[in-house]
Amino acid sequence: MQKQDSEAVKKALGKAGAYGEDIDIDRFEAGTRNPEAIDDIADADSSLRETMSHVGVTSEEERSGTIVFIDNGMSHCSNREQEGVEILSTRQAFEKYDWVKDYMWNAMSPEKDKYTAKTYLEESDGYFIRVKEGYKARHPVQTCMLIKRNKTLQNLHNIIIMEEGSSLEIITGCSTTHSSGDSLHVGVSEIYLQDDSNLQFSMIHSWGRETSVRPRTAATIGKGASYTNNYILLNPVGSLQSYPVSSLNGEGASCTFNTMCLAEKGSNVDTGGIAVLNASGTNAQIMSRSITKGGRMIARGRLVGNAPGAKAHLECRSLVLEDGGMTLAIPELETSVADVEMTHEAAVGKIARDQIEYLMSRGLTEDEAIGMIVRGFLAGSIEGLPQSLRKEIDEAIEKANLGS
Amino acid sequence: MLEIKNLHVRAGGREILKGIDLTIPDGHTCVLFGPNGSGKSTLLAAIMGYGSTEITEGRIVFKGQDITRMSVDERAKLGIGMMMQRPPNVTGVKLGDLVKATAGGGDCEGVLDKVDTFGMDRFMDRDVNVGFSGGELKRSELLQLTAQQPDFVLLDEPESGVDIESMALVGQKVRELLYDNSVCGVKSNVNRDVSSLVITHTGQILDYIGADTAYIMKDGTIRCSGRPADILKDIREKGYRECIECRSRIVKL
Fold first, then answer.
1. Are B61 and B5 in contact (CB under 8 A)?
2. ipTM of the shown complex
């Protein structure tokens, strides 16, 4: 499994992330690799079930499969579409297939920063999802990463392989329980889309007010393949920094990043997406909608056009609901090729007063009017959001009490 | 129903309304004429309570309550509704959701089954007002107002931007809003006695509703009043200035 120069990776343990505040990893204890086993999600204890449902992980009906990690070990794995979808832990997959090693630390460098280095050196487990050639999954696969014990470092290494012509939707929910808020979550996800495959990957996060979160996601996208990455964070968090990268390596590949974030007072959020268009005729779209309510919010987006005929658009919109905190939109476009078409727009500001009053003149209270506009701003603006997530999003918006 | 006394209003940094006195009895339809920039829309905005207007003097009494300092939604709940001439785009909010929320608060859920009669059934999943044509804007406003069922309706140029063919539908829906209570279904209040204040330049809307009194506004005050048909005829024949001068003489005599 270790193919990189481990000395160099060990050195990277001291390397802070390129963005976001530095987190002292040693402050946390390694999460257990042997958590309680859950046979059926419906039989899990009620607080766990509630935690999972807040991040879109619900009953196993209408799901191709479900895989749950608690702290650093697998707790549940079920699969209803074994004919086309394979769901294992990364460790099981590594032992089962000789070729899995070629997909480990290939899209992502372990030396990227201390979080990837730690995950590499500890040979962390995680989920492995593979969709076989030409197979189109009927239902989504759901994955869940929970931190149960407080002051825990959860570091997981996930691998998704979409074989040629396959198609799947994944809903992944990550959360802490009420008592494990002061923890660090690191999830390294390497995603491979082979030619003409299609993956819709939706990640919903719900953390505690003290939780530190450092997801590390990299996707490589083959010819004619299409990748959608939805990211949703509507609850308070301590410090979250995430900047997933998609490399569009095959002709005609496409990717979309949709980000929906809220930074309440005390939350420090730094998110976005990078699309690297390496092949001709590729296209990318990065859409971010964020709301700052007294917290710190950085919305990044970066498009890199490396091949002729690449087309991409980047949009960062932020609503600022109250004074204080900080909102920063950073859209970046980079190219060394003449024949590319890349555009961006960014907007930061409050909700227009005339819109609020217009809804109030129909009898809605000011809070109801603001809530309706904010809900529309977040949800309505992002196309292709799975219907299955709408309820969770509505509930989270309701809970965030954005009208007041 | 509505009583306005010595109303002075500032908007856009200057005084627009300079002492308006106006009384509108229950069930009366009043028409407001006046040249561009005379303050007609500011008067409607001030009655609705929009933040773009600031009342510096005078008061507005509605159904016996002083609403001069009331918030927009409190006025709406008391029964005031407004059709704006140019309503704002509300990106992300679906027309259907707004109509539902409005109808839910105003006991007119029956309107949801009659969306097609407004020609708006294809628009329920569209963002409110975004990319709507002139006629679509008016029909959308009328659908929302019908859901709201106000007792006092402010209409700011209901015919502007509407083509001749669509005008019949707009006119019919305004008429239903003012005189027909059956649209809401079983919950409707049969004894509703709706009053309205209508701004019009062309008088076209008067082909569809029966107006009781007309007023001419100029430079932030109401200059004269009379029978709507007479006033409209005078304005058409003599223009605002001469009409006002002539009518003021009549009043003085």
1. yes
2. 0.94
